[in-house]
């Protein structure tokens, strides 16, 4: 399976870390400490005129320019990590299907929203299975969340992360190309089922297990892959990945954390946002995508380029 078109949208509007924390009644010193430890500066946010639906519509139109003549999207998978009832988070796939003539009128519509940050990988796995069946030839994977309708304070998870808005559209076909997707793995660790609703000890236990959960997922790839690849992870915070690299076996791992300070942790979209700048066709290295989500949901995948001599890494 190949991502033949990847379109992304990180809203240019920003909410500063100070503004978000002040809505929680936090002391100004808390913002300074949070920035220093975790690397966050601001969160990307939709404007009043924008929504998840308008963002996806625009991205689909951009991606449609890379469809072959007479080719149509015959399935759409919507991935959202925040199944919240919100006007600007809501996406009506039926209306989107009706709006565009590059989407087949009977295109299959699927919504996934139960695996938090890692829902992206359940979407990739579903797309892969659909394409392998041969019934579908072009799947659009839409991923993204917004907290635009919620209080600013909801973007801040103390001692952990800052949530921003972002959206992606990935168009997928069977076969290979410059962004071949293989090695998709999805895990659930039910001992962390409480998620954000857990006690302080529950949440602390989850974050203490972060390295082990990430290690299990990455252990599915060969040592050669892990040694050569760029790791494109969820932007949970800078400290988590600094801690990860303190382990001797991870010390040489290339980890892309560029977006943490730019837009915050954008939930389901982080790994594919990073892929824009760390495509194997550009870096000459495979990429490993990874998300470790609250509730114990973990996903990973590998991206390689058929235009490079990377075939020894494909499992």
Number of helices: 12
Q: Over all CA atoms, what is the radius of gyration? A: 19 Å
For the termini, the CA-CA separation is 13 Å
Helix share of residues? 25-40%
The CATH C-level name of the largest domain is Alpha Beta
Q: Could you name the CATH topology of the largest domain? A: Peroxisomal Thiolase, Chain A, domain 1
Structural class: alpha/beta
Largest sheet: 5 strands, mixed
What do these coordinates show?
- With 315 residues, this protein is an alpha/beta fold.
- Helix content is 31%, strand content 25%.
- The protein has helices spanning 17-22, 28-38, 52-64, 93-99, 119-133, 200-208, 210-218, 223-228, 238-246, 260-263, 270-275, 280-283; strands at 2-9, 14-16, 42-44, 73-79, 103-112, 139-145, 156-157, 161-162, 166-173, 180-188, 230-233, 254-255, 287-293, 297-304.
- Helix 9 (238-246) links the parallel strand 11 (230-233) and strand 12 (254-255).
- The two termini are 13 Å apart.
- The model is unreliable at 310-315 (pLDDT under 50).
- InterPro entries: Thiolase-like.
- This is 3-oxoacyl-ACP synthase.
């Amino acid at each position: 399976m190949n991502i033949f078109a990847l379109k992304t949208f990180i809203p240019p509007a920003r909410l500063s870390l100070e503004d978000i924390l002040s809505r929680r009644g936090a002391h100004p010193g808390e913002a300074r400490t949070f920035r220093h430890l975790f690397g966050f500066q601001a969160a990307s946010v939709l404007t009043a005129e924008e929504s998840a639906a308008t963002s996806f519509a625009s991205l689909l139109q951009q991606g449609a320019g890379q469809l072959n003549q007479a080719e149509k999207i015959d399935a759409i998978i919507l991935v959202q990590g925040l199944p919240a009832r919100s006007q600007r988070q809501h996406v009506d796939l039926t209306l989107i299907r009706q709006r565009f003539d590059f989407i087949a009128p009977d295109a299959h519509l699927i919504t996934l929203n139960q695996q938090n940050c890692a829902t992206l990988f359940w979407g990739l796995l579903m797309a892969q299975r659909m394409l392998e069946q041969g019934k579908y030839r072009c799947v659009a994977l839409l991923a993204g969340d917004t907290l635009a309708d919620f209080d600013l304070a909801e973007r801040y998870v103390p001692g952990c992360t800052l949530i921003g808005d972002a959206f992606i559209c990935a168009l997928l076909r069977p076969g290979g190309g410059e962004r071949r997707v293989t090695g998709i793995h999805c895990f659930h660790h039910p001992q962390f089922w409480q998620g954000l609703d857990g006690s302080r000890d529950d949440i602390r236990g989850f974050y203490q297990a972060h390295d082990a959960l990430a290690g299990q997922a990455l252990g599915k790839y060969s040592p050669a892959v892990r040694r050569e690849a760029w790791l494109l992870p969820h932007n949970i915070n800078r400290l988590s990945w600094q801690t990860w690299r303190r382990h001797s076996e991870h010390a040489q791992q290339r980890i892309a954390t560029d977006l943490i300070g730019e837009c915050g942790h954008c939930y389901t979209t982080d790994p594919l946002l990073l892929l824009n700048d760390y495509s194997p066709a550009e870096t000459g290295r495979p990429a490993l995508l990874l998300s470790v989500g609250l509730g114990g949901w973990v996903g990973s995948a590998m991206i390689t380029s058929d235009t490079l001599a990377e075939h020894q890494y494909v499992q």
